[in-house]
Amino acid sequence: MYGTEQAYKELSCLIQFMDNDLNTLKNFENSSISQIYFSDLWYIFQPGEEVITSQKPLKAFRVLHVTGGRPYLSPPEDNRNYTTQPYRVPEKFSDFVITCYQIDFDGTKFGPVTFSFTIQGYNGSQEIMTLPIYPLKFANDPTIQK
Predict the structure, then answer these.
(1) Residues 57 and 144 sit within 8 Å (Cβ to Cβ)
(2) InterPro entries, from UniProt (predicted)?
(3) With contact defined as beta carbons under 8 Å apart, do 40 and 69 qualify?
């Protein structure tokens, strides 16, 4: 059984990990960041999140689901050469696809219309507001958030 000193050290280590490594999650939630890495896009595009386009005219959507943004696990079949090249995991990521919807009127009735937005992989970080769409909570203009 652990003594109180050992338990205290382990608990302190856990708290330090949570403060340092999981604190990033808080930054995504409270929109205190302005740039994001490609691998972190899934943090800000959660289902149900309200998003807007970065191009004028601004359009608003709600995120239905996201997919992609992951490294390819193997190269395409026709690029494999089993006899001369050893297998290696490619460094390329699949596109990050955000499927959204908005309510539209077709002249007769209102109904949901889906749209898909694709973000291709990029290196380093990128300004959130330069993405094709971004969460409404990151908009700088308070009138947009209304």
Answers:
(1) no
(2) DUF7025
(3) no
Contact at 8 Å (CB) between 120 and 33?
A: no
Please give the model's pTM, rounded to 2 decimal places: 0.72
In the chain, how many domains are there?
2
β-partners of residue 66 are 98
Residues 45 and 17 in one domain: no
For 38, phi and psi rounded to 5 degrees? Answer: -55, -40
The predicted-structure confidence for 113-122, as pLDDT tens digits, reads as follows 999 999 999 9
In a domain, residue 146? The reply is no
126 and 98 within one domain: yes
E-state strands within 27-109: 35-37, 50-53, 60-68, 96-105
pLDDT in tens, 68-95: 988 877 655 655 555 566 655 556 888 9
- Peptide linkage before 135 cis (omega within 30 of 0): no
- 55 falls within a domain: yes
CB 129 within 8 A of CB 33: no
